[in-house]
Each structure stands twice: as structure tokens, then as C-alpha cells.
Amino acid sequence: MTVFVLNVSRPGVPTPIGPTLTAPLPATLTLATLNLWHDYPHYSQQPERLEAALATLRELRPDVLCLQEAARTPVVQNAAEALATGLRMTGVYARANGNRALIRFEEGEAVLARGELADSGALELRPRAGFFEHRLALWATVETAAGPVVVFSTHITNQRGAVNAAQIASLVDLVEHQRRGLPAVVAGDFNATEDMPGIAALPAHWHDAGRGAFRAAHPEGPGGTSLGSGKRIDYIFLVEGDSVRWEILDAGTFGAEVVSDHLGVWARVSLAKGE
Description:
Helix content is 24%, strand content 36%. It is α+β, with helices and mostly antiparallel strands. The protein has a seven-stranded mixed β-sheet with strand order 1-4-5-3-2-12-11. It is globular.
């Protein structure tokens, strides 16, 4: 019984998904992030929402896609794998919570790309918000025409205040250690609005002092991503490299209630050598 309790919800290791791709990505990229909403234990219209997500993402055609709450349930075998296959993207998935083999449910993060992914890893963010609640950052490196970029997909706790801010600080430490001077994309559901401490404290070299790709392109736009609260809690952050800079060409949101209880965020960006 003790072994069951200890294993019923624990993070997993990165697992390859989707087809094998080897071509580098262009220096001008479309990035996207989407919380798929597992809706445990109801799984409301989960197969239909996954099909709607696939149709929406086929139209958007992201070069890099970060997923959160990518679930494996009694009604959807593997949401991340289904999107990777349907979009013809390679990827990695790591379980954050649950255990499909034991309780028929799990969910986690994924990074998908239209080119080869390498050097993947995953780490639980600290502090933990609860015994059965795990929050991960999953990362992998993608090669572009302007050089390698490290891509992180993450889902921060929805417990507001100090725990949320501390997990974001844990994420910053992880990103700065793992990217080793390379440019990075950090995307996901932060469960924090722009004025909350964790977002406000992001480093200045995380694009526009932590205001994210959407706000940089649309300074006065509402940008709400949570369909329940109308607040903006999903972000794409662009971290400057030692010798490579980002330029944002455009950004926005995508999706609707037929996809998730979150809108996704997309950004069209380019990489260039710094001066």
C-alpha cells in the first residue's frame, strides 16, 4: 500500500513522441503554447477538444509548440502523442502528476518541434505545493539556422502568493543554469498575472522585463488567456542569448472553449546575431 501511495502521483522522465525529424528550423519561427485542460476526473468532451486543438494548430502551423496538462486518460490515450503525430512534429513528453498504469490518469508537459530535438530533461519546481501536486519544467534544445535554442515548457502552481512566486524563481534558476548562454524560449501556464511578484521579478534579459511576447507586440491589448477569469496567465518569454538577440514580429492568442479553458499564446519571432 505504501508503494502504491508513493507512486500514484510522481513526475516521470522525458519520453520521445511523434515522428523522428532531423532538419534544422529557420531563424524566423512561430512559437505557441497551450494548456490542454485535462479536466480530471470528468474529461469533459476531451476527444472532441483534442480534435479541435489539432485543427486549430494545423492552421497556426507552429514551428515550436509547448503543451501543459497533456493528459493520458480513459478516453484519450496520449494527448501529446496525438498532437505530435497529427501535426507531424517530433517531441518529448514528461509526466507531472498521476500515473496512468496505476490510476488510469496522468498529465504533464510536452515540447514539440518541426525539427530535431536534443538534450531533453525535466525537473520538479520547488517548493512543492502539496504532497500529490508536482509542477515541472520540461526542456529540449532545437537547432535553428541561427544556432541552438533551449525550449522550456512549464506549469506553475495555481496556489497564489509565496508558493507561486517561489516556483517561478526556481524556474528562473533552472533556465539560467540549463541554457548555458544560449537563447531560450520559456512558455506555459504561470498561473500569475503580470503584476504578481513572480512575474514582476523576472530578469530583464527575459524579454521586456518579463512582460512576454504578447505584451511586447500589443502593449495595450487585454491578452486574457484564462477563459474562466479573463486574466492573462499564459506566457511566452524570450531569453536573450550571449550572442543572439530576439526580435518579435507579431503575437496573439488562439483557440476557444471548444479547445480548452485556456486560450493559447503564439508569437512570430526571429533570431539574429547580436551586435
